[in-house]
Request: fold
Amino acid sequence: MESPLHRNHLLALLPEADRQALVAQADMVSLQAYDELYPVDGPIEHVYFPLTMMASILVEAGHRSEVDLATVGNEGMVGSMIVFQVLRAWGRTLVQVAGVAVKLPVAALLTHLERQPLLHTILAQYQDAFTRQILQVSACNLLHTMEERCARWLLMTQDRVGRATFALTQQFLAQMLGVRRATVGLALGLFKRAGLITYVRGRFQIRDRAGLEAVACPCYAHITAAYQRMQTELSRA
Reply:
């Protein structure tokens, strides 16, 4: 039976001995929606390798509002900026979809980065893909419709939690997209009537992924391609 650690794409790239040495100093933690992992500019004392949860990095947008800068799920690591010796969070980091993650002290990770050259390569390549995601989302927020962005966001969530069904409130989704809840409700209503999703009592299910991809803006394909390229290059390392 495959280890649950393989659910995280970065951990799965490590040789078994290196992976076990890394997680020997880690804890498996269950995280709930709205748990704050880092405050704005807060110190990064632990990193997280999501297995089934997803986190969002929020930046202040004025008038006491926040908008989603990037999401991190099973494709990556929360707190990846520490690879470049940046030990403060870029924005407020919240759990968006509840689930399980591997929690590792930063001091332990830095030690393993010195001992495991492949780990350093993996995290550096991931940080590149993650930065590309941030740049793409920034352009997306300026250029594309809310319906397109909502479809992209739902697809990215499914990818990052590794399942088609996940719990999320319309209010949280509206906050991530920087729009009113009523505006999100209209988009979700369109998706439901088209048979793309179901949404009952704060629980989403992606029913027609191909249809949702057709609605999403090209940014989803660009972001996905960056992570796929990273995986391909690292698998050859």
In short: The CA atoms of residues 140 and 216 lie 11 Å apart. The mean pLDDT is 91. The two ends are 25 Å apart (CA to CA).
